[in-house]
Amino acid sequence: MTGKTICITLFLMLFVFGGCNSTHQVEVKPVEIKPIHITIDVNVKVDKALDDFFSDIDDAEESIPTE
Asked: Whole-model pTM?
């Protein structure tokens, strides 16, 4: 009787643990990349400051007589 009980127990364990199987599937969708347009106006302030800085030099060059 013990052999029969062991067989039944093994069969029940196989039946119970056989149902514990799970599968997972992950889908990777394509990534959409859009262009980014950035406009930065930093040079305007620097350009004006350089014009003011070099304006006295430009005026001096105009007043120097050339031979």
From this structure: 0.29
